Known about the structure:
This protein is mainly beta. The chain has helices at residues 2-13, 31-37, and strands spanning 48-52, 56-62, 66-73, 82-83, 89-90, 93-99, 112-116, 125-132, 135-136, 146-155, 158-168, 179-189, 192-196, 218-221. The chain has a single domain, classed as Sandwich (Immunoglobulin-like).
Amino acid sequence: MKHLAAYLIFAAAFSFAVKADDAENAPALSLSRLKEQGVYGFPQKSATVLCDQPELRFSVWNNDEYLFAQAVVWKDDDASLGKTDDNREIGDWSVLMLDLDADGKATPNVDRDYTLNPWPEMNGLYCQISMGERSSTGLKSDSHGRGAIRYINVAVGKQVRVDTFLIPLTEISRQVGDRIRLCYWGQSPKPMLTVNSAGYARDGKDYFSYRIPLSKYHNYNLTKGDEINFF
């Protein structure tokens, strides 16, 4: 029951994404505390930091129930929408890419991508299952995980974007002791930026998550973590 209660608290906390006009009402947190402790229940002190760069910190943690990942996009301070090249509205969005058998290649019906806010009208967490190299199912909203892109105030007039993913291990058919490979990709229309945790670059050109070779993903061993501590 304790695990269920914790999950329900987390689910309630992650059932929305902050809109541009709500950002000024987001909870305040010092920048130093965000760097040290994480936010929204993420156990930063116990997490594995896979990327720590001026534009992005990407950290991962797990216990025997969940894979928990958090990306802080330090230079994204604007939650407002932009436009695509074909004049459609687009907002902040991101992808957590999972090479679940850690073989460095796309494995049909095994590997998965979890996407946050793929379109402004599609808030929350969506999943795609690999069907092979550069092929996958459509976006599905049937994941039992939770996720959100939110902004947190770190000073007067200053806010920082935080993307958080919570994925049940049962959903990805993995358990403590297994090794996986993973990578984070995120994009913002305002300010216009694209970041990833693997250090991938495309000669100054814009790119989407599928461009990042699986060989560049991070190794991560699922370990025995404690229960999630919400604050």
